Each structure stands twice: as C-alpha cells, then as structure tokens.
Predict the 3D structure of the following.
Amino acid sequence: MCSPKSMSWIMIPLILGFFIGSILVRVQVDVPTGVTTFNPTGSKGSALVVYHPGLSDFQEDVTRAFIEGLVEAGWRCDLTTASRRTPEKLDDYDLLVLGAPTYEWRPASPVKRYVERLGDLGGIPTALILTGGGSTARAASLFVELVQVANGTVIEMLEIWQGAPNEELHGIPDPLVIARRAGAELVLP
C-alpha cells in the first residue's frame, strides 16, 4: 500500500502532464469566427487577414495593429481566424495576411492547415505575422517555406516577440507600434 506522501509524488507528474498536454492540444485546435470587415471603402486594395489567436491576446492584438496600419494606408481588410469556415476563394483579394503564434518552434497548426487547404495560392502577395516568446527564426523559416511551396509570394515576414526585446529585430520595443508601422508601410511588388 502506498503512503499519502508517495501518492503525491505519483499524482503531481500526472496532473502536470495532463495540464501541459491539454495546453498543447488546445493551441493547435481551430477557433472558428466570422469575417469582420475594416475600412469597407478602402481604395488601395483588398486584404484577407487570417490568423490563429493562440493562448493569449498577443497574436490578435498584433494582427489588429497590423490591420490598423493597412487601413491607415487605404486598404480594405477582412479579418477572420484559420478554420474550415475561413474563406478559401482568394480571387477577390490583392493581399493575403497570415498570422500565427509559435508553438514547438513552428507556426500554429491551424494556419498551416488553412494554407494546405488552399492549395495553390496563385502567386498572391502574402504578408506573414509570427509571434513568439523570442527566437522565432526556425518558425519563420517554416512559415515562409509553407507559403512558397503553396505558390504564394512572401512580401513581408514580421516576427514580433512577447518575451524578448523587440529592439533586436525592429529597433523599437512596442510590438503594436511595430505591427501598425509594418502594415502602414507595406508595399506590393
């Protein structure tokens, strides 16, 4: 028979393992939402912005700041999350924006699955927004490769960190200012 003390040494790893496993599954599950349009009368072009929200509000906040920059520059933007309900017809768009948090040194799986469902992107200009705690280089490389293999044209690879200084990459610390500026300054080839 086990003593209460020895039972706690068994239960703690089990509970911790279940908790971590639940988080890893949760971050890779689609989160369906509707499409929200920003600046419906935008004259510069039309952008479809697809992202995975992740565990915190960080990816959504960064994505929305990027949209603010696009709107400031005159773009019409449709925002939604990556799921089976996400629009797959890109003919009405001049720009595709994909946003993903980094998990296990890769972009979140819902965005990857969305791109794979799209198949051939037909060369559409694509901006990528990748968030992570820090050191997102491997995930960024995989994200770019994912889009290029699908015949998309990567015009921006924006890495923004939540837990490391953004000055290393962008010269300024505020992730939302970085994202907004990147959206406002985005130029199509």
